[in-house]
């Protein structure tokens, strides 16, 4: 077992495939925890013990943010979203939701949840499924509690439905706070929507592009948002987010003289 304490984060990983003892050990750590607000665990460590994990969430009163990687199992997602009277308000799902068949059930669970305020789906790889993006944006527009979304989207193309819905949401809604875009062709209309979300709506604070086509003029307009403080992070990369995140490359400046200011 590996336990890491960093700032207000508690990270726990169990290194064997014998799961029966994992719940009691996690329970003991949570009972002793009085200061760490973020719990970072792996769904793989609790397969077959989802109901026990749900009870741990329900008895928790200290942890307010849950980071759970490899959440690709509907029982694990049920344990997260169906917990009653828990203190969880922030949810981050790294390396999760990678099985297409789980995307629709995830949306249904998200729709019914009334406790989460912030959802982070900004993983190493982006979501390509058009139907999922549309359904996610539609349900968050009407959601009662969720106010902040971090999202990584792939394959935005000129005038496809994904672009149309993203533009509509960026202009009209105020829940997209952080956005990564990969393998996309970025139109002038999309840049204007990003500008509106950051400058006018004052909600979008983070934008990174990976291996996407963005004109120099559009880069300059977004950079003005960074200069004014509306965007706290802005990056344009030739490589994938995976390569950038693991530190194998730096921001691409290409032929532009602009300086870009995002490193994750």
TrEMBL record:
Matching Gene3D superfamilies? Ribonuclease Inhibitor
Q: Which InterPro entries match?
A: LRR_dom_sf
Q: Please, which domain of life does this record's source organism belong to?
A: Eukaryota
Q: What is this protein called?
A: Uncharacterized protein
Organism in which the protein naturally occurs: Rotaria magnacalcarata
């Amino acid at each position: 077992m590996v336990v890491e304490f960093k700032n207000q984060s508690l990270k726990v990983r169990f290194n064997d495939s014998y799961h029966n003892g994992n719940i009691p050990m996690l329970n003991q750590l949570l009972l002793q925890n009085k200061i760490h607000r973020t719990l970072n665990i792996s769904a793989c460590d609790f397969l077959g013990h989802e109901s026990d994990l749900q009870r741990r969430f329900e008895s928790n009163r200290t942890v307010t943010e849950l980071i759970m990687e490899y959440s690709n199992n509907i029982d694990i997602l049920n344990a997260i979203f169906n917990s009653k009277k828990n203190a969880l308000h922030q949810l981050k799902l790294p390396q999760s939701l990678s099985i297409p068949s789980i995307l629709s059930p995830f949306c249904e669970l998200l729709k019914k949840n009334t406790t989460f305020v912030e959802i982070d789906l900004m993983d190493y790889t982006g979501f390509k499924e058009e139907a999922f993006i549309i359904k996610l944006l539609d349900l968050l527009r009407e959601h009662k509690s969720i106010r902040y979304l971090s999202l990584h989207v792939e394959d935005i193309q000129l005038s496809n439905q994904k672009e149309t819905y993203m533009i509509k949401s960026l202009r009209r809604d105020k829940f997209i706070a952080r956005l990564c875009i990969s393998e996309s062709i970025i139109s002038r209309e999309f840049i204007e929507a990003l500008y509106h979300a950051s400058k006018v709506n004052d909600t979008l604070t983070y934008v990174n592009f990976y291996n996407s086509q963005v004109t120099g003029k559009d880069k300059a307009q977004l950079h003005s948002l960074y200069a004014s403080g509306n965007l706290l992070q802005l990056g344009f990369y030739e490589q994938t987010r995976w390569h950038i995140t693991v530190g194998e490359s730096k921001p691409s400046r290409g032929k532009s003289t602009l300086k870009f200011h995002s490193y994750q």
